[in-house]
Amino acid sequence: MDWYIQDLIKRALQEDIGHQDITTDNLVDKEQRSRGVFLAKAAGIVAGIHVAQEVFRCLDDDIQFTVVKSDGEKIAPGDTLAVVAGRTRTLLKGERVALNFLQRLSGIATRTNHMVELIRYEKAEIVDTRKTTPGLRRLEKYAVSVGGARNHRFGLYDGALIKDNHIKAAGGIQKAISTLRTRIPHTIKIEVEVENLEQLQEALEARADIIMLDNMDIDTLHQAVEITAGQALLEASGGITEANLVEVARTGVDFISIGALTHSAGSLDISFNLE
Q1: Which one, 106, 133, 213, 260, has least CB within 10 Å?
Q2: What is the pTM of this model?
């Protein structure tokens, strides 16, 4: 585990335990030892099993953590995901934080995998967005990749994306793209967000590498694909749900970005039972 994960876990444990676990420290003998089992209570895709493992190791090096279901594996209700053995106090103090990470990440991976499967026979690929929980972006985007989708840029630092407010600030699409091209390395692709076919034409004339088609209906997406004719990669974005995902994919776009993969994914139902 790198420093980012360890720091995140330590802050989560501090948030939960504070200066003392009042119940456990006054109820359980410090030398008592137990086993704890992570059990699936719903079907899905596992993600974050090693984060859960690191939670217990941050509390006590003297634990044994056996992974039964690795990240990316499908699980069914009743499946054992992992078994942890060690001091009972350690297990009780770490269970909630470990479950919070495991349930959240598995929920994202499960939702993502469901969306990916819906268009598995189409050329379009699903990508995520920056609509993530503050502080959890790397983990949530990792869970998206476990679910079978691709990561879009991780932040403002690793991709050039000209959005509507950039266009306003720069004085237009053409000016925004031409200015940016003179100031960033030639190895970085430029993506621009457009809201209609007129803006699409501007972006094509300015030779954008990728064009995000924002909140366009199916007919307009079809027209956009026809107009572009392979001159740039096309990304459909905005208002995309399970109900219209297949239709959007069949328009011929290259990518479909879905913020709901992270901002609206529920947690997968997983329990931790002490033995």
Answers
A1: 133
A2: 0.95
